[in-house]
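Quick one: examine this chain and its backbone structure tokens and tell me how the chain folds. Here goes:
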Amino acid sequence: MKRLLASLLASALLAAPALAERSELGELQLSEVVGGLQHPWALAFLPGGQGSLITERPGRLRWLDGQGNLGPALAGVPVVFARGQGGLLDVALSPSFAADRLVYLSYAEADESGDKAGTAVGRGRLKEDMSALEGFQVIFRQQPKLSEGIHFGSRLAFDSQGFLFVSLGENNQRATAQDLDKLQGKLVRLNPDGSVPTDNPFVGRAGVRAEIWSYGHRNPQGLALNPLSGRIWLHEHGPRGGDEINIPKKGRNYGWPLATHGVNYSFLPIPEARGERVAGTEPPHHVWEKSPALSGMAFYDAERFPAWRQSLFVGALADQALIRLQLDGDKVVHEERLLQGRGWRIRDVRLGPDGFLYLLTDAPDGKLLRLGLLE
């Protein structure tokens, strides 16, 4: 009886809107699911009401059960390069998780010297008691390792065919985004076991990494499958200005650092830049002249809040907001800023199985928030 009452109380607390404000589409309901997270980076929902997995950048993977109770760090997680922007980053479930219980992690991995790092991806089997990942194996490594602590990219997404896409930052080594013999500044496409699909665009081409799907990216921290079109969307940080959304096509060059709408943080031009549009490169699908500092993205296709359908939600770190982009097909036709003025750096955005949006705030005492429209 006590367990039932505790469960009902927890559910009531999660349902109660602790904070509220209006949006263009009606009043919002907002509640805190859990706090006390140390720089949380990503969230993945487990099927069957089993809760979710949350990564913390210092190197912990946590299980949050269906009643909002946060468990200890899981065992079996790899050692990470927890320096600067590096650490334990994205988490994704296998498309066949119900059968194989495989959990994919992306993280910053040090080189042998411990001074530089690159993005790595591995997978392990989640124990039934949620205590550990068993048999964790690295299936992909960004080469060479060039980062001293920034621009790891590191989002994971499976497409409708089951291919794994991994976004990779250019480690603040701008020119490498154009070098096809390196994995900096690239979007790569892999089979679930990390092998290279035979129809990748550069397979069999000498001196080119076969993993590459598209290139010329800066620091992509948003990656999601558009459920309406079945295509992968990506967003990336510009320098000072020029954050952009792209729908990456096979073998295409997305310009960085040759083409950009931004300038250096010093306000001086990017040395390699030739303009906002450069022949042989793809223009941004959508661009912000002033950088919100984007992180995380989720398409809304649930039935719960019909007013949000045909919307893309992205987090903003510098602008400390949640951005709603209204879509007409693939076209962005309107932008709305939500949750401004609260000081929350929104690191990840996910659509929950209940039709609510779930947001992670990047802070030493980070939070998981639940957001919906007042019903």
About this structure: Residues 6 and 12 are 10 Å apart (CA to CA).
